[in-house]
Amino acid sequence: MKMKRFTKGIIFLSMLLFSGCISLKELKDIKTGSIEIYDNKVDLKKNWKSNIGGTNEFYLIQPSPVLDDVNYDGILEVIAGNSKGFVFCMNGEDGNPIWSFKASDAISSTPTVGDAMGVGGKEILIGSLDENLYCLLGEKRKLVWTYQADGTIISKPVLLKGVRENDISVIFAARDNLYCVSGKDGELVWKFKTENNITSTPMTYDIDDDGVLEILVGSEDHYMYCIRGEDGKLLWKFKTGDEISTTPQVADLAQDGEGKVVFGSFDNKVYCLDGVKGEVIWTFETGDNISASPAIGDIHPSEGLEVLVGSWDNNLYCLSGIDGKLLWKYSSGNWIISSPVITNLYSKDKKEIIFGSRDNHLYCLEGDSGKLVWTFDAKDEIWTTPAIGDIENNGSPEIVVLSRGNKMFCLTSSLRKKG
Ligand SMILES: [Ca+2]
Ligand SMILES: [Ca+2]
Ligand SMILES: [Ca+2]
Ligand SMILES: [Ca+2]
């Protein structure tokens, strides 16, 4: 059974908004989650927890937190949005807010941090159900520009160089359109229309190796689109059996110099397409919808890169990027909506996979075997993608995860000290 969670969701969610506003002072401590360790060589501890407020009722419209040093003090900040319209810039060391900004409706897109204005600073690009894309200064609470789109903004904006000379562009989706606007002032460069909502985050890649970037984006009209970055012209489109809401990943999977496009669909399948022609190389069928974006990396000793993808059949799959063959799978207790993150927590030559499940747990698996390393029970469903970075630069990476009820946890995992 499939839930049409998006369109109806937005109408209902809009009615829930403005039922109250929180101030920075009201960010408060919440009940602690529990940790289980399955590998006696590692440790996991909680650094802090916070409640950023608001509730998320519908799938795919909860923004994930992002880590970046937006005030240049060598410490990473957490940038996060909530369903009450707040964007928070929080101190990564303790979770205390540094500044906040309020939109007039829920923050619905994961933020992107980058030099959008092209003057060497760090801006935060974030979309809202109020149909505005906001460009905020990262360093302090300041709105640089706003672009009023023709619909709600669910997917994450991305930055694209080379559309116009000496200018960085922001690519984002609102309702059924993909927009390209100037990062300097938000002026529209081009617009590309699909036949239904776009909740998929656009991916940029020079797929035909001609020095000009292409944009890959999926739509709920069932198509994956490949669009020329400089003018928004269609290069190819590929039809799946149902809605696409996952972010396509593009990588040289077989390490033969050719970019392949990998994504999942609500028709339960993972697709790998030839990037130049948009033709199928392989597919892999899971037991239910795929709404989480895949992750790609060299995590397994088998040849080439591997594809990791979660499904509403509760499983996380590790597939060979070359032919889509199953290398391992891990069964969680509920749907996987959270995208997996590939990281190095314990050593340079082995990778770990971190992802959340609707069964309330954050999982850490060994990349080469799929073996469980630890779990963290957030006591609340996890839909978002965790953010990983070494917040205070001490060699132990931190993991920031946001639960459906907007409880945020900061965890640190490292090798257990000997003796
Ligand atoms: Ca900082
Ligand atoms: Ca190109
Ligand atoms: Ca490999
Ligand atoms: Ca650290």
From TrEMBL:
What are the GO BP annotations of this UniProt entry? Answer: amino acid activation for nonribosomal peptide biosynthetic process
Matching Gene3D superfamilies: YVTN repeat-like/Quinoprotein amine dehydrogenase (2.130.10.10)
Instruction: Name a Pfam family for this protein.
Output: Beta-prop_CGLA
Which segments constitute the Lambda-carrageenase beta-propeller domain?
Answer: 185-274, 277-372
Q: What SUPFAM superfamilies does the database record attribute to this sequence?
A: Quinoprotein alcohol dehydrogenase-like (SSF50998)
Name it. Lambda-carrageenase beta-propeller domain-containing protein
